[in-house]
Design brief:
Elements lengths: L2 E6 L7 H11 L3 E6 L9 H8 L16 H7 L2 E7 L1 H9 L5 H8 L4 E5 L3 H5 L1 H12 L3 E2 L3 E4 L5 E5 L3 H14 L12 E7 L3 E4 L2 E3 L6 H12 L3 E7 L11 E5 L2 H11 L5 E4 L6 E3 L9 H4 L7 E3 L3 H7 L6 E8 L3 H15 L3 E6 L11 E6 L5 E7 L1 H18 L7
Parallel strand pairs: 1-2, 1-3, 3-4, 4-5, 8-11, 8-13, 11-12, 13-16, 16-17
Antiparallel strand pairs: 6-7, 9-10, 14-15, 17-18, 18-19
Helix pairs in contact: 1-2, 1-8, 3-5, 4-7, 9-14
Length: 411
């Protein structure tokens, strides 16, 4: 098992690092906790020392003699900063060494993971985004932040990633020696769709679905983490869910989504159709609201098929381009898988992510589980976890397919 340095900075989310420390030690890792002085306002030094079995100093001159931060960095197989504040990221980007944590980071040649946690306005501030971009280019790995309700009651991107998500990334890096997702899509363009389209049948009513767009937004975020330039086409997705830095196109109906996606498709290396696009729309849209007095006891809507965007993309697919579809089905695991295999073989996308929806599964702020199939119905495996974890797995498979399908002139 590897030796891990756990850096804890001054965020209200610092208490969650206690669970992360326990997870590392429970799995056999030796952990040295290095808190910043401000973080001790949230979790005391004695807590870190009793749980880790090691001193938890904040400065290089704490204690009777100088602490050797170089030796600490040399012995570490991995450094994890959780939570990582905007202040810490700025100091790390500048190469400062004004406490034990930044001194250790500056002396390290092992992988470094940062799990940011801060108010959404601080996370979205151009200064923070620039600091993160620079650190990524230096080889840092980032987990989160995620979207959710924060300590002050506000909602948005800035919440510390879940413990298991941070631990899973750390385990992968220590096992493989590198993070396969880092910069895997650098220089590539990715188009992702998200949300549920709405098909109006009068000025106030529409035919729609329960999709929130969380999975599509997580796919956009995962693609960004891998270095891609991302365009997100969304239908009825909350603004707070849209990752910063993406090119964002808003649409309402299936036809508007088809027009937008098909017009931009040719310029993208990977296209991921994660949106819940309506299969049918009302043939006629009334100009005024229909009342119960007009319609009587029953209403009959005549529906027509919408454009099959995935099939259109596959038909127009250029050499070297990877098309990814989603197949959301209800039923038993066997029924869902069989329906997915049939769709993969019939529509022929490069990849198809098959998942079960309904009864509390798939839609909304819940975990997801997908099986990734190729065009023949063969499986790349099953992946379960947060929507971001599932997205990272899917985009890694898509990136490998992109390498295999690379045109000869790019080789």
């Amino acid at each position: 098992m590897g030796s891990v340095v756990l850096g804890v900075t001054g965020s209200v989310a610092a208490f969650k690092a206690v669970e992360l420390l326990r997870t590392f030690t429970k799995n056999g890792h030796k952990v040295r906790v290095i808190p910043t002085e401000s973080s001790l306002e949230f979790v005391g030094k004695s807590t870190w020392e009793s749980l880790s079995g090691h001193s938890a100093d904040t400065g290089v001159f704490d204690g009777a003699q100088r602490i050797d931060h170089v030796a600490t960095a040399r012995d570490a197989k991995l450094i994890v900063i959780a939570p990582a504040t905007a202040d810490f990221l700025a100091r790390a980007r500048a190469g400062m060494a004004n406490d034990l944590l930044t001194s250790t980071v500056l002396a390290a040649d092992c992988p470094i993971i940062a799990a940011p946690a801060m108010h959404p306005t601080m996370w979205l501030n151009p200064a923070t985004q620039e600091n993160v971009d620079v650190l990524r280019k230096r080889g840092w790995h980032f987990v989160g932040p995620t979207q959710g309700v924060l300590a002050d009651g506000h909602q948005g991107w800035g919440r510390l990633a879940e413990t298991q998500e941070i631990f899973a990334r750390a385990t992968h890096i220590m096992q493989e020696g590198v993070d396969v997702s880092h910069d895997k899509l650098a220089g590539r363009k990715v188009l992702v769709t998200a949300g549920g389209t709405r098909e109006p049948w009068d000025p106030v009513r529409f035919v729609g679905n329960y999709s929130t767009g969380r999975q599509g937004c997580a796919l956009a975020q995962a693609s960004q983490m891998m270095g891609a330039q991302v365009t997100l086409v969304s239908a009825h997705v909350e603004d707070a869910l849209i990752p910063s830095g993406v090119t964002h196109r808003r649409v309402e109906t299936a036809q508007e989504m088809a027009n937008c996606v098909l017009s931009e498709a040719g310029d993208n290396d990977i296209i991921v159709m994660a949106a819940a696009v309506a299969d049918y729309r009302p043939v006629q849209r009334d100009d005024s609201k229909m009342s119960k007095e007009q319609t009587g006891e029953y209403v009959t809507l005549e529906m027509e098929r919408t454009t099959d965007i995935l099939s259109e993309l596959v038909a127009a697919r250029r050499s070297g381009q990877v098309i990814v579809g989603f197949a959301a089905h209800t039923g038993s695991p066997a029924e869902v898988r069989n329906a997915g295999v049939e769709k993969a073989r019939r529509k022929q996308p490069d990849l198809l992510a098959v998942n079960t929806v309904g009864s509390g599964l798939g839609f909304g702020d819940v975990e997801n589980s997908i099986e990734i199939l190729d065009a023949t119905g063969e499986s790349f495996g099953n992946f379960q976890g947060s929507k971001l974890m599932v997205s990272q797995a899917l985009m890694q498979v898509a990136a490998r397919c992109l390498e295999v399908s690379k045109p000869e002139e790019d080789l």
